[in-house]
Sequence to fold (344 residues):
Amino acid sequence: MGEASTSMIVAEGVGKSFTVRARRAGRRRRVRTAVRAVDGVSFTVEPGEFVGYLGPNGAGKSTTIKMLTGILTASAGTLRVCGLDPSRRRTALARRIGVVFGQRTTLWWDLPLRDSLALVRKLYGVDPDAHRSRLAELTALLELEPFLDTPVRQLSLGQRMRGDLAAALLHDPELLVLDEPTIGLDVVSKATVREFLARLNAERGTTILLTTHDLGDIERLCRRVMIIDRGRPVFDGGLGELRRAVDADRMLVVELDRAGPPVTVDGITAERTEGPRQWLRLPRTANAAAVVAAIAREHEVRDIALREAGIEEVLAGLYRGERPYGFPGPSGTAPGAPETLAAE
Ligand SMILES: Nc1ncnc2c1ncn2[C@@H]1O[C@H](COP(=O)(O)OP(=O)(O)OP(=O)(O)O)[C@@H](O)[C@H]1O
Fold:
């Protein structure tokens, strides 16, 4: 992997361990333990992609993002972002990427948003003319005008997030890295931010890597999702592929001509009845057509609907430890779990 790579991000076997001191239950002495926050993560992101980086709490997402942006140095593997080693070329990289942490602001708390953005221009050395036109464009797209002269501390969360996005994009970066950008936003603000990100990616071709727990963000924005669990990759692909890969149940809803006891077919019994309507949970391996035919042999069927598992159900299964086909997942020492290094 050389600097000549045209990929936006190349991660090969990237890992990060933290050493923490902790008192074990029933022991008096504190021991130094290593927490493997990220453990052997490999992936490539090409220019123009919009990728969701997902995983349960503590999976290692923020740690990965901190390594990608040069805030933390990887303890294993190699990483290139825009062809650069992030921890060694942090300043050069900062000119080519934008970063937004939903939980924190990079704006100056006491300054009006307009002045904060002017400072950002100076920091990045953006040419004043280019800044003016870019600011005008971002102000229109993010609807910043009504609060450009308001001190950042007085902005609502949604307004501040739009301000942070503008600050991250003023220097027109090739890659935008977002850590939970819609956290705490109301439905209208979320929709504004999502619409903006979708356009940024589609029209300007900005590559976007997004971590989120928001299912709407994932379904609306991410053509590709990468999932990590306890520091290790467990899935990389499209949402449809994820639904198919995970052994998620489907729900068959049948409407019979009359109410009756729960239907049983091929060992599957309706788990809910409501008048003539009955709900049967079909394992992925069940043949839906055969189940429907078997029901139709015994009953008068008025209507049928087959519901695929929602992305929420799919992710919940994955986060509970149900592995998609082809992704055996963590084995051996559980990554993320502390391992004792030495007693103190
Ligand atoms: N500075 C640190 N020192 C010690 N352990 C850390 C440090 N930062 C993170 N960790 C640990 O690394 C693991 C991964 O944390 P990380 O913040 O990357 O998870 P995450 O996927 O972003 O979680 P969340 O969805 O809750 O934000 C956790 O076990 C966490 O406690």
Notes: The CA atoms of residues 109 and 154 lie 9 Å apart. DSSP finds ten helices and 16 strands in the chain. The pocket of adenosine-5'-triphosphate is lined by residues 18, 20, 35, 37, 55, 57-63, 336 (CB under 6 Å).
